[in-house]
Specification:
This protein is an alpha+beta fold. Helix content is about 25%, strand content about 25%.
């Protein structure tokens, strides 16, 4: 395991922000990660774990040690006539993992195609798209405790999944590092094409016989039409969570904005953050090299050369604008450093 000093992290975050890590290393095994936590030099040092760097905004240089989690491997654990149990290393690129399951004929993750990041980051915020969330197929994960390097197993129930949330963002935040993630997938998929424009995209492509690949391809097509490629334009995907508001506030909004889209939830009514931001006039806005994507207002972008503080300030201005116009608070999905 090689420790580098003064490492530029521009290539390790999808916003393409320049930030210098005092100490940096890549880890490829659970054992290497455990050694980090048991190393006296780094024990009391601030620690930042990076997966794909697709959900982080560097507003300053990080302190201490930055670790890039590169734990690889996909393995079939159990199999019967109807289901499979499959484990992936936390460093496996999420989309590569999804494509692997589709190629094997295992259903459950096809609607989550092309979401950026790594498999280890997926359960941290219960990633979701097009009517599907990680919690629907998640079985368990292994995580290393930072305090002593011990390995622990978390079940679906242990993770306390919520909307873009888990214990790893709440009660157990910064206490563990995810090493492996295990899913229970089906050999007899039930296709979910009712959310968003999936069915419309399938129809446009003349697809009459559903398959895992057909649904995945439709999702990929939709995402590519709306979202910028981070290899071309720096971004972290959805920058804000879709707010869930109470019925009283929704009724007031509905009266003033009859076209407001809404999705009933157990704890209120979900309003698309992108719609709110667009109605507030921010879609396609640019301030220097920081801006809002012109096809999806939920995405903030680095046109090249913007720093994290400029993007953070833009995000705060958008939040203030939406609050003033609609009385709705937007929470960021992206983590700030």
């Amino acid at each position: 395991m090689h420790i580098e000093e003064n490492k530029n992290l521009k290539a390790y975050n999808t916003f393409g922000i320049e930030a210098i890590a005092p100490y940096f290393c890549e880890v490829y095994t659970v054992k290497e990660l455990q050694e980090i936590f048991r190393n006296e030099k780094f024990r009391d040092m601030p620690l930042l774990i990076l997966g794909g760097g697709s959900n982080i905004l560097f507003t300053k240089d990080p302190e201490g040690l930055v670790v890039s989690n590169k734990i690889e491997g996909i393995s079939l654990i159990e199999e019967d006539e109807q289901h499979v149990v499959v484990k992936a290393g936390a460093g496996v690129v999420w989309h590569d993992f999804v494509l692997h399951t589709i190629a094997q004929g295992w259903g459950g993750l096809e609607n989550l195609s092309l979401i950026p990041g790594t498999t280890g980051a997926a359960p941290m915020q219960n990633i979701g798209a097009y009517g599907v969330e990680i919690k629907d197929t998640f079985l368990e994960l292994e995580a290393i405790k930072r305090a002593d390097g011990s390995l622990h197993t978390f079940t679906n129930e242990d993770c306390c999944f919520g909307y873009r949330s888990s214990v790893f963002k709440t009660t157990e935040k910064d206490k563990y590092v995810i090493a492996t993630v295990t899913f229970r997938l089906t050999k007899q998929p039930v296709f979910n094409t009712s959310y968003g424009a999936i069915q419309e995209t399938l129809d446009a492509g003349g697809i009459t016989e559903l398959s895992l690949k057909a649904v995945s391809d439709a999702v990929i097509s939709i995402r590519q039409s709306k979202l910028p490629d981070p290899k071309v334009t720096g971004n972290a995907g959805s920058f804000f969570k879709n707010p869930v508001i109470d019925e009283a506030l929704f009724n007031r909004l509905k009266e003033k904005y009859p076209a407001v889209p809404s999705y009933p939830q157990a704890d209120g009514i979900k309003i698309p953050a992108g719609w709110l931001i667009e109605q507030a006039g921010w879609k396609g806005y640019r301030r220097g090299n920081a801006g809002v994507h012109d096809k999806q207002a939920l995405v903030l972008v680095n046109h090249g050369g913007a720093n994290g503080e400029e993007i953070r300030q833009l995000a705060e201005d958008i939040q203030a604008s939406v609050m003033e116009k609609f009385g709705v608070e937007l929470e960021t999905e992206v983590n700030f450093v």
